[in-house]
Specification:
Rossmann fold; alpha/beta; 2 domains
């Protein structure tokens, strides 16, 4: 019986997302057949998020990098009021801005299973009827509801942006229009700010690595175990994190912390959700680009697909286990010239990726004939 349960959990349940995808595609098909051809519109991109979302670095960088890629007049910010019906606000934004493309995040609307699925179906039908191409940001592929919504909204057109390898997600995702693993969206203006911060005098703690980010299990236990391993060697792992739901530090404090750290440490796991599956798939979290852009040495797992952007021991230092992390951090704290060499290579690579607007060009390539530009 236990084998059957495991087979269901790891084989059947993750693929249940295919059912609402097929239903959505079948309902869209008549619109594709009978809808009158829409007149071609000038390029216009809408990016939505709730008010709290727009306070985050993630969405500030998404918006600013889009402006740098497409132009200020093309990009429209849509602020979703959590106290008001979500779908009506999406309809209003589309009718107001007449976008050709719409950036949608499953975290923004309803988080209740059946209402979220119905909402996603309505979004898919409405966007397709209006001739709007969806770009779905799927931050956590392991969360089954978000994955289902992403598949539904892009059932007939558009692209899903993920932070894990396309090869890893393919078995449990209903279509192949996926861009992943994606880099974090990162703007040239923020990169310039980091360069200025790096040039200001500051004292680097040569005896510590630094972790900045959210705290949750199993990440919290791993960080403590690494710190416990470093202390007897005369080093430490400084944890500057926050629990889920806690307020974020001001942006400038966050960037100064990264810039002023000799080593930036990160894991590649995600926050466990109630309806998660295939949680063993590592994500290319934002710190991969943030730490290297800030000029510190990145110590991180070598996740699938990362080689497209960064090479281990050239652009960053990789680790596999807690003991391995202790060994790697110790080595680079004891060898500052080697640390600076790898950090410099990583920074140069990060600058090149940001200057090439890799986040948006990858989306553009995945969109094919529906490309932004």
């Amino acid at each position: 019986m236990s084998h059957l349960v495991q087979w269901y959990k790891h084989t059947i349940r993750p693929r249940l997302v295919f059912i609402p995808f097929v239903i959505t595609w079948l309902l869209i098909f008549p619109i594709k057949v009978f809808r009158f051809k829409k007149q071609k519109r000038p390029l216009s991109l809408c990016i939505e998020a709730g008010s709290r979302g727009w306070d985050s670095i993630e969405y500030k960088e998404l918006y600013q990098s889009a402006i740098e890629y497409l132009g200020h007049d093309v990009v429209n910010k849509v602020v979703i009021d959590k106290e008001q019906p979500y779908f009506a606000q999406l309809v209003s934004a589309v009718n107001q801005h007449l976008p050709t493309h719409y950036v949608y995040d499953p975290r923004t609307g309803s988080q209740h299973c059946w209402s979220a699925l119905l909402e996603s179906l309505r979004i898919a039908l409405f966007l397709h009827y209006k001739g709007v191409v969806p770009i779905v940001i799927l931050t956590d592929c392991a969360e089954r509801l978000w994955r289902t919504q992403a598949g539904m909204v892009t059932a007939s057109s558009g692209v899903v942006v993920t932070f894990i390898s396309t090869k890893e997600i393919a078995p449990i995702f209903p279509h192949s229009r996926i861009s992943g693993p994606s880099l974090m969206p990162f703007s040239q203006s923020t990169l310039s700010t980091l360069v200025i911060l790096k040039e200001t005098p500051y004292a680097v703690d040569e005896k510590a690595a630094t972790f900045v980010g959210s705290l949750y299990e199993p990440r919290t236990s791993m960080l403590k175990a690494i710190d416990d391993g470093l202390i007897p060697l005369g080093f430490s792992l400084q944890t500057k994190g926050r629990l889920p739901g806690m307020p974020r530090v001001p942006d400038i404090v966050y960037w100064e912390t990264l810039v002023h750290s000799a080593i930036g440490f990160t894991t590649a796991d995600q926050v466990p959700q109630e309806y998660s599956d295939w949680t063993w798939i590592p994500h290319m979290v934002y710190r991969y680009l943030e730490v290297t852009a800030a000029g510190g040495l990145l110590v991180a797992p070598n996740v699938p697909g990362l080689a497209r952007y960064f090479s281990p021991n050239i652009h960053f230092a990789e680790f596999d286990t807690v003991d391995d992390a202790v060994r790697v951090i110790t080595y680079y704290l004891e060898n500052p010239k080697e640390r600076e060499r790898v950090a410099s290579e990583g920074h140069a690579r990060a600058c090149a990726l940001i200057s090439a607007r890799t986040f948006w060009t990858s989306i553009n390539a995945a969109l094919g004939s529906q490309a932004l530009i």
